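Quick one, T. Sequence first:
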Amino acid sequence: MKKNHKGKILNIENIAQDTVKMQFSTNLEEISPGQFVSILVENKTLRRPFSVADFEDSAITVLFKVKGDGTNYLKNLKIGDTVDYLAPLGNKFTLPSNGEKALLIGAGIGIAPMLYLKKELNKKGVENFLISGFKDEREAVEGSDRTVIGGSVLDDIQNLIDEFKPQILYSCGPKIVLQLVCDIAKKNGIRAEIAMEKVMACGIGVCRGCVIKLKKGEEVKNASVCADGPVFNGGEVVWED
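Structure tokens:
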């Protein structure tokens, strides 16, 4: 059940340029890959949402880029400080069926939920491959099977599909990356699940500030990324300019 929690920071460190890894304690018993937490920031009304990059031993790990006042506040927290957060939020990735292989694609900070998903797939013995892309070597986060610096992570996807022959694609990153991943999946007749990055206000589906459109059969319906997602069937997303 989604509710307010408080935890103590166990570790906080810079792991790449403007990228922070923060781990804090939790009393939650389960958080699944794809779900996120929403953290309270001092003197700010709106919480900040972050994908879960790991969950183990009563600790949640998130990664975030330092961009504004909220993330600047968080990066300056110290071990032992208290974090006020809502969790678990959102839905989760659908894990592959027996014998299926998974190709994971993370772009920029979108690597966060892919790292947790990869860990869980490894635990379950699911064959997988994670490729990530970063604009600059200084921004690269470790943990991928292949890392692309500069250019586009998508340039290698078709070759990987031909070589690895996955039955499902998972991805998180900017809209343009997700849209192209879905196009590639459709072209190859492969399922795609994407975790969407969207500016969220309430984080619980009340304000409707993160609405996207989904095609369900012949109907097009609205969905909130925070409440109905952030994970969606890539084949159902209606991409808008």
